[in-house]
Amino acid sequence: xxxxxxxTLQLEPAQVRTAADFFEAYGSYALSTGRDQEExxxxxxxxxxxxxxxxxSAGQWAMLFDSRRAxxxxxxxxxxxxxxxxxxxxxxLAAVAPDQLDLFQTSxxxxxxxxxxxxxxxxxxxxxxxxxxxxxxxxxxPQQQAYxxxxxxxxxxxxxxxxxxxxVIVDQSPHRQGVAPIGALGTPLRLYWDIxxxxxxxxxxxxxxxxASDLARMGMAYAxxxxxxxxxxxxxxxxxxxxxxxxxxxxxxALASANRLGASLMQEHLxxxxxxxxxxxxxxxxxxxxxxxxxxxxxxxAPVLA
Length: 306
Hints:
306 residues, mainly alpha
């Protein structure tokens, strides 16, 4: 399917590989030189942000020809974002490499978010003084909260926290009706909140169908974005257009759904949702399907917490 995707996007395989190689090399360079600079200017995290962004770009290009390489690159990027407190990193790591996620830290961040909507008596004493637990800077942004919530909801059976606290965030946060744009496609925030709620539901069949339908709509937005980018042939054919050819959010949500609802069930509904879409709109759904096939789910990576 890799060649078919590149043909649909009118991209040369050599150019796609070059783009992935370039961004991976730059990400590694940023990490290497940044560590040296940090010795003379302690506390600067700019090089980490630079490296994380570049590795993410490398990963989304690699989706077009090597799912496993894409997952490794996205995991490297996500580890940096997650360490810096960005919900996006937690989300991507939960999707592509859940065994690498610090479940206690993720639960603690979710509890900080839950504290905004529940009385302090429901927060476990084991997590310490509430007054000393504040949302980190990145998590003050609704978009980063949405990513964190998606990560937690997709792995709720493994988190050392009450699932009801996740339901409180889903049901009581004003962002459940939010229209702020999130991700490269500018998807309304409420869609991410709704998907998180689906992960907490008991009806896996219905949840998989609805989430796949949501991803199909995102695929149509992806096609519109790609078609607009193709209008500038100079940028497009040099792999320099400011768009994601492998949409991290679509693929991440699909992988998180497979982790939570089951790979075969999610694959079935992804295929059904893709029917009727044009070739470009199908690309991110098919990339997601290929990554689900290639990557082991959390059941094969880590035990469920009692």
